[in-house]
Structures are given as C-alpha cells and as structure tokens.
C-alpha cells in the first residue's frame, strides 16, 4: 500500500488492503448517518461486488446512473440529489464515487453541493481517473455543450486507487488513460518520457508501477496552484485542441474518448509549440511518432477544422476572447498562457490531417 | 462609510460614496473581461438605475430573473448560467447580485459554479439580506420543496450595503428583516435586546444605526465557525419551526415572508427553551409580547401542526433522524444541538395557536 499525502487529503494506492482502510473509516470514530455509493451500469457490475464484499459494511445505499459523458448533465445531478434526499441523507452522510471521470466529477459536484456539501470519497476505476481526474479537486458537469462548464474546486476526503479494477477495462479505455500519462511526462518529467519510449504494447505495461510517478506529477502541480491561476494550466497541454476534437467527434460518426482526443491535441499542440515557441522539430517528430504508435489516427475531414476552431473559442480557459494554450518549451518542460492565431491553429490541425 | 473586515472580504456600508468604491474596482487594476448584474423585476426598477448612474461603468450585462422564493430553483440557475454563457462570460468575469436573499443566494451559487467559480459581489437591497443573508457565505437554492437544499459555502469578493435602498421597500418586507435583527439580539446581545424594547413602530427606526450591531453579531459568529459545525448553529434559533411554518404557509392561502415565519418560530422555540431548558417564563412572555407587537399573529389551523412536523423532519440541520434546535439559555445567550420530542414540538405550536 502506498500513500500520497496532499494538503487536505490522502491518496491511497494498493491491492485488497485498501478496503480495510475504507472499512475502518466507516466503522470507527463518528459513523456517517448514511453511506451512499454512486455507480453506473458498468461499475455496478464490474466493481461494486468487489467493493461490497471487501468493505463488508451494511446499509450502503447504491445510486445508479447511466454511464457516458452524455449523461454528465444537470439533469443527472437532479436525479442524484433526488436519490440522496429520498434515501434520507443529511449533512453527516457521505458519498463514495465508484467509477471513472464522469462519476467522480459529477458525484463530487453533487456531494459538494448537497445540503451545502457532504463528505465524498473518490474510488476511480479507470486508468484515466486513477492517474488524473481523481486528483486536484476539479468537479463538474457539462453544460450547453461545453465540458465542465458548471462545477467547483473541492477536495474529496480521500482517494482510493485499486489497480486491479483496470483488468476489467477494454483496451481502448486503458489507451485513453495512457494519453494523460504521456502528457504528465511531456510537461514535467523528461526522464519518465525517455523511459516510456520502451513501451511498445499497452498490454505489457505494469500499471501499478506507472501510476505513481504520474500521480506525483499531477499532485506536485495542483498543490502549487489549486485554483489554476498559473502553473496548473500546464496540465492543459493538448487540451485546447483536444477538447475541441473531442466535442466535434461526439457529433460525428466516430466519437472519441477523452484521452484519444487529447492524443490528437498533443500532436497538434506539439506542432504549435515548434511554430510559436522553441520546441525543436525533432521533438515534434518523436512525440508524433510515439502517439501514433499507440493511437490510431483520427480521420476527421478537413472542413471539420472550422467547427473545431469555433468550439475552441468557447473554451473556459480563454480570457477576453483569445484562445489560450499550454505549450512545450522542450520535452519535459511546459509553459502556459500562450496564444496562437487562428491561422496557425488551422495549420496545426491540417498538419495532423496530413500525417500518414 | 463604515467597513467591516471579515477574513476573506469586506462589508462596506454607506451612502452614495460606496458606489465610488465599486467604480474603482471595475476601472482600476486588472479589469474584468465582463461584468454582469443579476436583478429581478423589482430591483431592476427600484435599484438598478441608481447603481448604473452612480457606478458609471459601460458594458454591464444585465441578467433578469423573476422575483420570489418560488423561482429559487435549479431551473432558474440553468437560465442564469445560459445567460452568462450567452453574453460571453469567462473565468475572469464577475457577477454583481443586486437584490434580496433570493438573488444573493442563487446568484452567488451560479457565480460560484460557473466555470468552477467566478468573482461575485453582493449588493443586498432588502433589510433581511442587508443584516443577514449577505454575510456568511451561505449560497444555494431550494430543491424538492426543501429550502437551500442544494448550495455551497463560498464568500463573495465584497458586500456593499446601501441603506437608502430600504426606502423603496414595503413595510412588510422591512418587518421580515426586522425578525433577524431580533434574533441576533436574542442569541448574542442582551444589551441590544434591552435597547430594542424601545422600538414601538418600525417606521421610526433608524436602520442606518441598527444594521451595524446586527451585522457585527452575525460576523462574529460566522467567522468563528464558517461551516456551521458548532457555534454558528445558534443562528438557527427560530428557524427549525420557522422554516416549517414558512414551507407550510407557501402551500396555504397566506404565504409568509421568511422573517414573518421566523417570528412565529422564535415564539415557539422560546417556549421550547423554557420547557426543555432554563429560559425563564418571564423571558418567554417578553419575547412573545415583543414579537406579537410587531408581527400579526399567523392564524394557522391546528391540524397544520402535523404537516409542519413532517416538514421539520426533512430539515438539513437534522442528523440521523432527530429534529435539531438552537434554543435560548437566557435572553442574549443561545445553545445549539438541542433536540426535542415531537410531542413537545406539537405543544409549542399549540402554545402559539392559542395566543390571543
């Protein structure tokens, strides 16, 4: 068992022994008046039985929602708040969010606002949420087609990371999480990036070993700047274009997962990093090659570029109308608050389009 | 101009000079990318012209919602978030809430969650919000018939209190705010309570003088315990029964304002304070007499008592099923985390019913 001590809470990573920690919280000291678990149909089947068996606590109230980003809405929040009220939750109740980023972000938001805030715990079950979404206190929902447009910064009471949950994930889901691991290395740890070059097949990766350094990078950055006023923005590398690609893809025949879209975004933004900044061409090539080795190329039509630029203009990272980027100065070093012209963004997307 | 320095923000009370302070914020330093004002049809007519003329800043975006507690809902939040998005607000935008408790609570909640939180300023325009709601960071909306069931604790950037706004208020609205002033004195300041005995007619009160001591009581309490884990609960004196009376009244022929319901609640809870605790009978009589001097008796039928008790059981101050009260030990001293039996609560409501 490994623990990471953040300012306001702990992240605990381990095998079956972590359930004993959860059991202790629920049975010692002042018990919660009601303990709820938020799941979707997938985690209800793949993760909840393990949780219930291992934690061995009576009286859980299970709240189930539908999986998928398209349900990360205020309407689903209304259902969650209603379910909490119906099962008699009060201010001394707690919610465990058992699932990926959607469950964690939305469950955290609902807990953080139910009766002005009750305790919540994150149990991320996807690679993406284990290395990224569960750390840093960003909670929220999509609104009016804009991702995380309504939300909060609020820390959970604890995060429990159980890598065996990854075994039930489809490879595509693992790959999505892998994109954020690549990003963490690229923005903050050249040594890790170098080592990752040895990864040829995701099936052979020892996640138990790759999660901690990635978590540590995220932790270090968010603790320096919890409210994203400065340095935390470097975590948005790949995300300005990536979010636009992701939004666009959801209205197309081929919807992308978050990490798949960020993989596209990182290639485009590496290109921008070379054009507007000092990232060497050789680095752009290496980043492009590594990502395309692991991620199928996303075949969007050239006329989708204008749609994507329109979406970027709505991004909440923008300030006063210009499109904001975090770019690479070199592999392992990022800079934030960079702006690019629309023409250059167009060029970067076309660079991706023209890749073999 | 008078200022109260709280830990995270300032409350500024004064006449026209306070608008210069607002103007400075908007024109000096880093200006906001967009400045929005939330109003309802009443404050749009009675307060907005003064604000716009005095602050003399271009480019305000006015967002208007319908007045009244019945609109303090998630549906109205959706409209406010939409309006914010439509006018191009980003993370560096700000919202001014120009109105009473509904505008302040709901506008603060929307600002605190829009793009995970933008700056907001409270400009309370009713007596109730000037002495109470605007201080202490409680934000939220009603949900499923329960007041403030969804919300946040979050401080504004500043609060501007302009007593001349009170001139446009109907007397009934003033009386509603007066109830919270009575409460502040009863729970924390015997001297103030004594002095208030001289008040015979609300029309003759000098609010400019009565607001500061009331604000100071609220400030002192919320700063000791911002998240209502302990001492802050004393502010709930009169509110357990008061909220139930208020909710009940909204489904009756004679809907009460918040303060009017709290006035009923304070009489009933003074009765409980005597029955379960040490508050002398003479104090119950004095409290009853003072309140009935200023507030018409609310004529609810005896069979409404069960409805009210049902509503109390839903209160978010409850923990693990029992009904929670803050009661008076003596005039000017309150205690929290008291519970009463349903029978006694029934008795207290019937005591009120039987008053002449």
Plain-language structure description:
2 copies of one chain form a homodimer. Chain A has about 350 residues and is of the alpha/beta class. The first copy, chain A, folds into 2 domains: about 1-170, Rossmann fold, CATH 3.40.50; about 170-355, Dehydroquinate synthase-like - alpha domain (Dehydroquinate synthase-like, alpha domain). Helix content of chain A is about 45%, strand content about 20%. Chain A has 14 helices and 11 strands. A 7-stranded mixed β-sheet of chain A has the order 1-2-9-6-5-3-4, with helices on both faces. A two-stranded antiparallel sheet of chain A has the order 7-8. A two-stranded antiparallel ribbon of chain A has the order 10-11. In chain A, helix 5 links the parallel strand 5 and strand 6. In chain A, helix 7 crosses helix 9 (about 205-225), helix 10 (about 240-250) packs across helix 13 and helix 11 packs antiparallel against helix 12. Chain A is globular. The interface of A and B includes residues 90, 113 and 116 of A.
């Amino acid at each position: 068992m490994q623990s990471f001590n953040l300012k306001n809470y702990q992240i605990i990573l381990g095998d079956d022994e972590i359930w004993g920690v959860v059991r202790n919280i629920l049975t010692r000291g002042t018990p919660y008046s009601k303990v709820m678990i938020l799941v979707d149909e997938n985690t209800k089947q793949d993760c909840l039985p393990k949780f219930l068996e291992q934690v061995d606590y009576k009286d859980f109230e299970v709240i189930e929602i539908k999986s998928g980003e398209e349900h990360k809405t205020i309407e689903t929040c209304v259902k969650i708040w209603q379910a909490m009220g119906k099962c008699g939750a009060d201010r001394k109740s707690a919610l465990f969010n058992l699932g990926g980023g959607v469950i964690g972000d939305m469950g955290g938001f609902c807990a953080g606002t139910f009766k002005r805030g009750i305790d919540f715990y994150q149990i991320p079950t996807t690679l993406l949420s284990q290395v990224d979404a569960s750390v840093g206190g960003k909670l929220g929902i999509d609104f009016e087609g804009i991702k995380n447009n309504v939300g909060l910064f609020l820390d959970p009471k604890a995060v429990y990371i159980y890598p065996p949950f990854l075994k039930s994930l489809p490879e595509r889901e693992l790959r999505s999480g892998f994109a954020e691991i690549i990003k963490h290395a690229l923005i903050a740890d050249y040594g890790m990036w170098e080592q990752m070059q040895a990864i040829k097949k995701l099936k052979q990766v020892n996640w138990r070993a790759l999660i901690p350094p990635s978590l540590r990078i995220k932790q270090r950055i968010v603790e320096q700047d919890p409210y994203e006023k400065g340095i935390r923005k470097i975590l948005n590398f790949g995300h300005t274009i990536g979010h636009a690609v992701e939004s666009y893809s959801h209205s197309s025949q081929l919807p992308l997962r978050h990490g798949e879209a960020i993989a596209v975004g990182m290639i485009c933004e590496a290109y921008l990093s070379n054009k507007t900044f000092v990232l060497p061409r050789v680095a752009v090539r290496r980043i492009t090659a590594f990502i395309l080795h692991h991620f199928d190329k996303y075949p969007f039509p050239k006329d989708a570029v204008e749609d994507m630029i329109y979406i970027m203009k709505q991004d909440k990272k923008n300030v006063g109308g210009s499109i904001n980027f975090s770019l690479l100065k070199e592999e392992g070093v990022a800079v934030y608050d960079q702006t690019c012209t629309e023409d250059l963004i167009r060029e970067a997307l076309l660079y991706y389009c023209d890749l073999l």
